[in-house]
Amino acid sequence: MREIENIVVLTGAGISAESGLATFRGQDGLWEGHRVEDVCTPRALARDPALVHAFYDARRAKLAEVEPNAAHYALARLDAQWPGGLLIVTQNVDDLHERAGAKRMLHMHGELKSALCAACGARRAWEEPMGDRPPCPSCEAKALRPDIVFFGEMPYEMERIDAALSRADLFVSIGTSGAVYPAAGFVQTARHYGAWALELNLEPSAGSYLFSETRTGPASKLVPEWVE
Ligand code: BV8
């Protein structure tokens, strides 16, 4: 392994599981509650906006009941102490990384606490339910939608992510099943550029074979151990 200067961390629903937020593909998975086609596609939003808003309104409301866990706080400490380059790329739409104090991070699949106007493109912090289709504060159109990247939509900040992956000496994937692209392909990109790839996950993921090293266990144990 070469000298570590630049680190990219990818997180998925598994890092927030011990905070009490459901993951997507476990037995209690969110997707089990709803077929992914039902709630996470532009067509679903056009066909049944009430269902899609109810799904995201419920998850936004749940955020008020949960706290970051030891894994989020460990990454925030890494962020504060690491003198080299660091980018935390989360697939999660919760705000637990921020609430734990992480700064050098981005949400590639959007955020529950943000609203996007499908008419004028305005984006703003949002805490309220969207189910009653409130008018956009900028253009008045009743076209607010969750600021979430649906299947078939382009994830956010892909150039910034690709640039960070091309410079990474270490790529760490935490709590993700490796089921969704392009995030599931980041390990291959990082390794193509010579990074060491470490997976920290409750169980081996679909992409475990692509990693230099896989450690299995709960994030609240593995992440602090790795950061320290
Ligand atoms: C795009 C929104 C193109 C937010 C989500 C065929 C091949 C390749 C790709 C495709 C294909 N067919 C279609 C595609 C593209 C598609 C895709 O990948 N489909 C999959 C299903 C095959 N991808 C897309 O559409 C993406 N966009 O490709 O755009 C494009 C190009 C140009 C122009 C326009 C478009 C968009 C993908 C984003 C979709 N949005 N969600 C939300 O609602 O939350 S995806 C959804 O899955 C979430 O974002 C979630 O983050 C993500 C991944 O899930 P995970 O985070 O991994 O969660 P999961 O439950 O699956 O796993 C949890 C893991 O944690 C498990 O491994 C578990 O063991 C572990 N765990 C549990 N507890 C713990 C733990 N680990 C540690 N500790 C614990 N305690």
UniProtKB/TrEMBL annotation:
<feature type="binding site">
    <location>
        <begin position="201"/>
        <end position="203"/>
    </location>
    <ligand>
        <name>NAD(+)</name>
    </ligand>
</feature>
<feature type="binding site">
    <location>
        <position position="219"/>
    </location>
    <ligand>
        <name>NAD(+)</name>
    </ligand>
</feature>
<keyword id="KW-0479">Metal-binding</keyword>
<dbReference type="Pfam" id="PF02146">
    <property type="entry name" value="SIR2"/>
</dbReference>
<dbReference type="InterPro" id="IPR026591">
    <property type="entry name" value="Sirtuin_cat_small_dom_sf"/>
</dbReference>
<keyword id="KW-0862">Zinc</keyword>
<feature type="binding site">
    <location>
        <position position="120"/>
    </location>
    <ligand>
        <name>Zn(2+)</name>
    </ligand>
</feature>
<feature type="binding site">
    <location>
        <position position="59"/>
    </location>
    <ligand>
        <name>substrate</name>
    </ligand>
</feature>
<feature type="domain" description="Deacetylase sirtuin-type">
    <location>
        <begin position="1"/>
        <end position="228"/>
    </location>
</feature>
<dbReference type="InterPro" id="IPR026590">
    <property type="entry name" value="Ssirtuin_cat_dom"/>
</dbReference>
<dbReference type="InterPro" id="IPR029035">
    <property type="entry name" value="DHS-like_NAD/FAD-binding_dom"/>
</dbReference>
<keyword id="KW-0963">Cytoplasm</keyword>
<feature type="binding site">
    <location>
        <begin position="91"/>
        <end position="94"/>
    </location>
    <ligand>
        <name>NAD(+)</name>
    </ligand>
</feature>
<dbReference type="InterPro" id="IPR003000">
    <property type="entry name" value="Sirtuin"/>
</dbReference>
<feature type="binding site">
    <location>
        <position position="56"/>
    </location>
    <ligand>
        <name>substrate</name>
    </ligand>
</feature>
<feature type="binding site">
    <location>
        <begin position="175"/>
        <end position="177"/>
    </location>
    <ligand>
        <name>NAD(+)</name>
    </ligand>
</feature>
<feature type="binding site">
    <location>
        <begin position="12"/>
        <end position="31"/>
    </location>
    <ligand>
        <name>NAD(+)</name>
    </ligand>
</feature>
<comment type="similarity">
    <text>Belongs to the sirtuin family. Class III subfamily.</text>
</comment>
<keyword id="KW-0012">Acyltransferase</keyword>
<dbReference type="InterPro" id="IPR050134">
    <property type="entry name" value="NAD-dep_sirtuin_deacylases"/>
</dbReference>
<comment type="function">
    <text>NAD-dependent lysine deacetylase and desuccinylase that specifically removes acetyl and succinyl groups on target proteins. Modulates the activities of several proteins which are inactive in their acylated form.</text>
</comment>
<keyword id="KW-0808">Transferase</keyword>
<protein>
    <recommendedName>
        <fullName>NAD-dependent protein deacylase</fullName>
        <ecNumber>2.3.1.286</ecNumber>
    </recommendedName>
</protein>
<feature type="binding site">
    <location>
        <position position="139"/>
    </location>
    <ligand>
        <name>Zn(2+)</name>
    </ligand>
</feature>
<feature type="active site" description="Proton acceptor">
    <location>
        <position position="109"/>
    </location>
</feature>
<dbReference type="InterPro" id="IPR027546">
    <property type="entry name" value="Sirtuin_class_III"/>
</dbReference>
<feature type="binding site">
    <location>
        <position position="117"/>
    </location>
    <ligand>
        <name>Zn(2+)</name>
    </ligand>
</feature>
<keyword id="KW-0520">NAD</keyword>
<feature type="binding site">
    <location>
        <position position="136"/>
    </location>
    <ligand>
        <name>Zn(2+)</name>
    </ligand>
</feature>
<dbReference type="GO" id="GO:0034979">
    <property type="term" value="F:NAD-dependent protein lysine deacetylase activity"/>
</dbReference>
